[in-house]
Write a structure and sequence with these properties.
This protein has helices at 4-22, 26-30, 49-59, 63-66; strands at 33-41, 44-47, 68-78, 83-93, 98-110, 113-121. It is an alpha+beta fold. It has a single domain (4-121), classed as Nuclear Transport Factor 2, Chain: A (Roll).
Length: 122
């Protein structure tokens, strides 16, 4: 059953992802994703954590390109006992520019952890 502790756990995974990103650690950032994640954006759909990781590493080859990530989590809504939807926004502050957009994430409880199984980022 989805409870208040589950929302806190999901928000903590996202906080951990921000921390990993800000230190330039893409593999650490990817720990929040399930092995069979699908990432959907205006560039298309990529499935599998290894493939999504490779895309991030190509697009953000170093710490300067990665900048400082900021999530603003809008809501976390139960979608059954072992699934949840999370929506919000993101900003990527870099020395030369700031990028921003939104996201919808489908989460799944996997064992005692929550992992992203679908990521629609725009």
């Amino acid at each position: 059953m989805f409870g208040p502790g589950d929302e806190e756990a999901i928000r903590q995974v996202m906080a951990d992802q921000e921390t990993a990103w800000d230190r330039g650690d893409i593999p650490g950032f990817m720990e929040g994703y399930a092995p069979d994640v699908c990432f959907v954006s205006d560039r298309g759909t990529t499935c599998g954590r290894e493939q999504v990781t490779a895309n991030y590493q190509r697009r953000y080859p170093d710490k300067a390109a990665m900048g400082d990530l900021e999530f603003s989590v809008g809501e976390v809504i139960a979608a059954g006992g072992d699934h949840a939807w999370c929506t919000g926004g993101w900003k990527l502050h870099r020395e030369s520019d700031t990028l921003s957009g939104g996201f919808s994430l489908l989460w799944q409880r996997q064992g005692d952890a929550w992992r992203i199984i679908r990521d629609h980022t725009h």
